Amino acid sequence: MQVAAAIEARWQIAFSPRALFECPRLGDCAAEIRRRSGGAAAEAVRIPARDSGGQSQPLSPAQLRQWFLWKLDPSGSAYHIRGALHLAGALDADAMAEAVSVLGGRHPSLRTEFIEGEDGEVRQRARSGAGPALQFVDLCGAADAEARAGELLHQLDGEAFDLCRGPLARMLLIRLDGDAHILALVMHHIVSDGVSTQILLDELALCYRAALDRAEPALPPVDLEYTDYAHWQREWQGSDTRERQLDYWRTQLGSEHPPLLLPVDHARRSSAASSGEGATAPHGTIS
Fold it and tell me: Is the pTM of this model over 0.85?
């Protein structure tokens, strides 16, 4: 998706991830870009920015799916996006907290909560003020610092989010000793994804450096918010596009869908669960 988005931004054309799979070879991909560039002005997608005026906004279809899944299992953590970094070297916890505060004010998604009306309609609203605060735990001198840090990370990820009460993101900084820290981030998938998580981490690094230098971070302006995309997608689906796509998939999938009976090692549970065996990978270390 990042490659497709970069192509769209560079050549100002509509270029979906599907096009990459249809043109896997570099030469074929370049030829497709040239072909589409001939009608760039007509094909380019423009999402208009909107002034919400502090009012609640509709959800995108993807967010509605996440809301439905959360209502089925409000105590689950299957849709948490999480990550942790080992940071090597001296670190200023106050500067990191300031950087997190700047991000909270910059990105409404970090201050978003969801409201369900009496009629069942769900809308989203970004709270005014700051976003998530940086939690800080100092384990310097603790004999079992690594084990306690692991417990803290497990608790951070395992605690369920209440989508009706933001913020839907948590950040934790753990000091293991003077030159070793762990920075952990957990967000609910309804306000984030893998691409936006990387953007947050990149901007966090810029804001932290600016806080150390007592300067304003050199960040690009935020021209669009996710609610702008949600509005655009709803309007797009309100046209005949939605019906054409539904007709296509009804034709492709047919009317009968028998269960796919795959061989299993044991009987399925009566209720779904996201727990299971896992493998531990080393944390990334940033010096």
Answer: no
